[in-house]
Amino acid sequence: MRVSVIGCGHLGASHAAAMAELGHEVIGVEIDPDKCSTLASGASWFYEKDLDPLLAKHVPTGRLRFTTSLTDAADFADVHFLAVGTPLRADGEGYDTSEVVSAVEQLVPLLNRPATIMGKSTVTVGTVARLQALIADLATVEGIELVWNPEFLREGHAVEDSLRPDRILVGLSAPTALAAVKEVYAPILERGDIELVVTDPATAEVAKSAANAFLAMKVSYINAMAQVCEAVGANVDDVARTMGIDHRIGHAGMRAGIGFGGGCLPKDVAAFTHRVGELGATEAYDLLTAVQNVNRARTTAAANLVEHAAGRPVAGLTIGYLGAAFKAGTSDVRDSPALRLADLLHRRGASVVVHDPEALDNARRSHPHLGFRDTALEAATGADLIVLGTEWPQYTRDADLPAALAEVVREKTVVDIRNAVDAAPWLDGGWTLHQLGRPTRKQ
Ligand SMILES: NC(=O)c1ccc[n+]([C@@H]2O[C@H](COP(=O)([O-])OP(=O)(O)OC[C@H]3O[C@@H](n4cnc5c(N)ncnc54)[C@H](O)[C@@H]3O)[C@@H](O)[C@H]2O)c1
Question: 352: which of 230, 362, 380, 413 lies 20 to 30 Å off by Cα?
Fold first, then answer.
């Protein structure tokens, strides 16, 4: 099929590359000329594992191309995926849907034959109905269908999740739109192991928000238990492991730490909370508010742990800070918990010197007041202690790192705010290891 993907950010660029890999002819529309020309050169403008190889494979053949022109996309494609941003509004009261509305306003008048618009951006309940009314006003031909096809991919696994999603969800009003959905996803559906869930648009909108909120709730739940463990000297990692053995609970998302962040969960939970409040779903509102309150408190809990580890307030200390990305596997620093903590330590008077294998440039731009170094060793040199801010395997799994860092730091004290480190080489090397929700360890 000929498909367009409008908005080639973290979601859209990965989706466009996956669509090409599935055999479609794809045109990606990206409004930002710098991002567009990078993608058109066959490389990504952000780090996402597995994305560059797919771009390098499909851009040179012409199966996948990028443009800033919606007209090109309207002329070329029969299915148009919307993957533009839906940030939180400045007042925090729901999404700013201006990018979605504007993409529809610009695209629909350009369509001169039947087409299916498939929204992938995360939107609040009621948005699809509003966009359907907008399309009815703007369409100059019959047969412009809108379906909502929320995306569940995980950054850091975006390509893999686009090619092998857990499920495909579509919310639609007219059954006629289903044919295009089935055709575009045929290479995935034909494998026979993926459920295509078809609902009305409002159900699809709620399902996406509810899924995100549930993941956030799991994270906040185990973090709340970390607080309990700290009060009694218990070990939250053992609590989580024990709980997760029960298949009704599971292990995923059950690692205590600094909390959730990134370009999706924080704003999606905030927008959903606001919406359920508007809808009068009081208990849901209270539950989701608590999820966010636990998450916000993690930054302070982690800063307090750093002070506990240092045995004094951090003012005047130098901290070798490993990690800036909101999680391992991405260069994305949007709402990064690692940077939230680095920022708080800086505000408490510490000198914070950051390294990250992929997110250094983004972190430098968003937090210019912090210090930055090109290697972990340089960031650690002369530091009073080490904080592990992001669970990159090169920090948590490299058995040689503790010994290398020990040569350059003042104190062999490490605070792992992701509870992710492989402890043995640190403890064997004489380090004191501090983690959230579990007793301090030292050999
Ligand atoms: N990032 C994820 O892992 C993920 C996962 C699931 C859902 N989502 C949802 O997908 C949407 C996009 O998220 P993202 O992280 O990719 O955001 P992003 O900011 O990385 O990408 C959005 C892109 O759209 C471009 N854009 C905006 N208006 C445009 C227009 N009119 N024409 C062409 N391009 C335009 C922007 O320049 C930007 O590059 C959001 O609603 C998000 O909640 C994201």
Answer: 230
Please indicate whether residue 102, judged by its CB atom, sits closer than 6 Å to ligand 1: yes
Q: Which residue minimizes the CA distance to atom 10 of ligand 1?
A: 121
**Ligand 1 in reach of 4 Cβ (< 6 A):** no
Q: What is the mean pLDDT of residues 332-338?
A: 98
The residue contributing the CA closest to ligand 1 atom 39 is: 9
Structural domain of 6 = 2-197
d(CA 65, CA 20): 10
CATH code: domain of residue 62: 3.40.50.720
Q: Are residues 58 and 172 in the same domain?
A: yes
- 145 with 271, same domain: the answer is no
Residues 210 and 192 in one domain: no
* Cα–ligand 1 centroid distance for 12 (angstroms): 6
Nearest to 340 by CA among 267, 224, 259, 272: 259
Tokens found for residue 280: 């009068």
- Inter-residue contact 8 to 30 (CB < 8 Å): yes
Domain count, the chain: 2
Query: Are 290 and 370 part of one and the same domain?
Result: yes
Query: Could you tell me the distance, in angstroms and rounded to a whole number, from the CA of residue 11 to the centre of ligand 1?
Result: 6
For residue range 273-327, what is the model confidence (pLDDT) as tens digits?
999 999 999 999 999 999 999 999 999 999 999 999 999 999 999 999 999 999 9
Enumerate the active-site residues.
Answer: 264
CA 41 – CA 23 distance, rounded (Å): 20
Instruction: Calculate the average pLDDT of the chain.
Output: 97
Q: By alpha-carbon position, which residue is closest to atom 2 of ligand 1?
A: 11
Q: Would you say the CB of residue 71 lies under 6 angstroms from ligand 1?
A: no
CA of 6 from ligand 1 middle (Å) equals: 9
CA of 104 to the centre of ligand 1 (A): 14
188-215: per-residue pLDDT in tens?
A: 999 999 999 999 999 999 999 999 999 9
Residue 358 binned pLDDT confidence (cut-offs 50, 70, 90): very high
- Give the whole-angstrom CA distance, residue 421 versus residue 15: 32
CA–CA dist 378, 369 (Å, integer)? 18
Same domain, 405 and 314: yes
Confidence band (pLDDT; 50, 70, 90) for 231? very high
Shortest-distance atom of ligand 1 to CA 13: 16
Identify residue 169 by its one-letter amino acid code. Answer: L
pLDDT in tens, 248-284: 999 999 999 999 999 999 999 999 999 999 999 999 9
Ligand 1 atom closest to the Cα of residue 86 is 41
Atom of ligand 1 nearest to the CA of 153: 5
